[in-house]
């Protein structure tokens, strides 16, 4: 399960509307990373692929492949309009290690709109 904040849901709804993609959902993917943590990607898609986990929150559908769900399970996805922190961010539930610290929650950001066309 991935938790979406109201801001994240609103940003996804806005992207779908502005890109004239009614009925689309958003694919969220994560790949294991090095010291800086996972690498995230997002793109609008019409339908899920076989084996995807499909989350439906309000009118937003989120598609996540199994490998990405292993990384993102329990994560909170947020969106900020703040000029210094604009874009989507993921707060992972599980503890992650980084180069500087071996403990604590790990947070990473996808700067900009975050959507691939």
From TrEMBL:
One of its GO terms (molecular function) is 2 iron, 2 sulfur cluster binding. It comes from the Bacteria. Residues 2-99 form the Core domain. InterPro entries: ATAP, ATAP_core_dom, HesB-like_dom_sf. Coiled coil: none annotated. GO terms for biological process: iron-sulfur cluster assembly. NCBIfam families: iron-sulfur cluster assembly accessory protein. This is Iron-sulfur cluster assembly accessory protein. It comes from Methylocystis parvus.
């Amino acid at each position: 399960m991935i938790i979406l904040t109201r801001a994240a849901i609103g940003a996804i709804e806005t992207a779908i509307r502005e890109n004239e993609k009614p009925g689309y959902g958003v694919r969220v993917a994560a790949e294991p990373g090095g010291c800086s943590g996972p690498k995230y990607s997002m793109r609008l898609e019409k339908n899920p692929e076989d084996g995807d986990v499909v989350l439906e929150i309000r009118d937003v559908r989120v598609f996540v492949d199994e490998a990405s769900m292993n990384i993102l399970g329990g994560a909170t996805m947020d969106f900020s309009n703040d000029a210094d922190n604009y874009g989507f961010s993921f707060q992972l539930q599980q503890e992650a290690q980084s180069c500087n610290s071996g403990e604590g929650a790990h947070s990473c950001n996808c700067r900009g709109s975050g959507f691939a066309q």
